Amino acid sequence: MHIMHCRQQIFRQSVQNSFRQLMADTNDIRGARLSLLRLQEVYNMKSLDMIEGNYLGFKGPPLGPRDAFEIGQTAFTVGKLNISLDWLTLSLQMYRSLHGADVEQMLFRPSEGSIKALIGRVHLFRGDDDEAERLYNEAKILDPTNGDVLELGKELQIKPRAEPIPTVDYFQNFSRLCSLENRNYPADPSNPKIRCRYREALLPYYRFKEEILSISPFASVIYDFVSEDESKHLKSFVENKLERGKVGGNNSVISDIRTSDLAWIWDNDSTKAKTLAKKIEHVTGLDTSQRLPDGPSSGEAFQVVNYGLGGHYEVHMDPFDAAPEQGELQYSGERIATFLIYLSDVQRGGSTVFTRVGIAVAPKKNMALFWYNFDPAHQKDDLTHHAGCPVLIGQKWICNKWIWTYGNTFRRRCGLTPDATQLDIEEDMKHGYKWH
Predict the structure, then answer these.
(1) Which residue has the higher pLDDT, 120 or 16?
(2) Which cofactor is essential here (predicted)?
(3) How crowded is residue 321: how many other Cβ atoms within 10 Å of its Cβ?
(4) Which of 14, 27, 130, 332 is most buried (CB neighbours < 10 A)?
(5) Residues 262, 305: contact at Cβ < 8 Å?
(6) In degrees to the nearest 10, what's the CA dihedral of 401, 405, 406, 412?
(7) CA 84: distance to chain centroid?
(8) Can you tell me the mean pLDDT for 90-99?
(9) Spatial separation of the C-alpha atoms in residues 265 and 361, rounded to whole Å
(10) Residue 146 and residue 151: Cα distance in Å, rounded?
(11) What is the pLDDT of residue 16?
């Protein structure tokens, strides 16, 4: 009876694994491992905590020796040797603790020889030849035909070394900002101009609560900008249209720089989208009109984006390096402003951070984040480098509307001095540069 039960368990596990392989291709699986490594690095989590299912106090599923081995293997392939060694060492420890366990557990795991061989390869690339040699001698006895054992034997003849990973100057500040608790952190809280106020939209009594986070670059959050109905509409409209997000402007490609799914909604695609575009126009004082199909246009389609576990967007700027070459945005100039709407709360992670000025904005459902990518002298503002922090718990939905130069040249004119800020020209914008 016990043997029959074991066979049933093994068969069920085999079917589950086969089904998993059919549903997720190699890139999906690799992407999931990279997401876990990204979360670990950004939020400074320990490998052992993640194996136990402890994600900064949030409880998740525990990981087994195979999981730890594959994460360590992926870390090795991308050159993260220290992290790789940590995961592989824990995998070996868990492997040894499984002796005497039931058949189902024993069936789905890497061999001890394969783990030791990969640990040996890590040591070899780190320059520890003696330890690599010792592990190779043990591994070739345990599993002489394993791929990593054979590869380690070859590598010991040539002794390769890892290329140093370039230091990214913004990463430390990026990690710090992402790790802050879920609230907004302005650039300079002591500045009296960093304040809350009401922002009018078309009519004096039609106002929104706004919190200014930075003067230069100008950035603010506008609370309760969309209704529950509008938020739900944007997500449901793209439900079956989401595709993997790309980067690169005219020659866009899929990249680990951005891990998300997205879809587009033109203003004329729905009445609610058209109304929302007009609301953005009234609040910002900027033209968002779309002139299809050939342009030029003053605003892009709404970009609705979904970030799952580990979903992120590395530090970047919104303006293109080169203007669009065709379509409704050719001759439209540049993305002078970004209007980002949060369509969901996020339990942990997912903040929008400006790494050069120290701003962190935690996602809050129905809130909008607005900033100018160009200063009042119409110079691209390098301080607007920003990033989407990895989602740790939950999922993140946002909606972007990028506003272009065309149609806004006289709505947002240059400041009167080279160091003029947005607040210096704001009253002129509000009154259309007509004072009586």
Answers:
(1) 120
(2) L-ascorbate
(3) 8
(4) 332
(5) yes
(6) 100
(7) 22
(8) 87
(9) 25
(10) 9
(11) 41
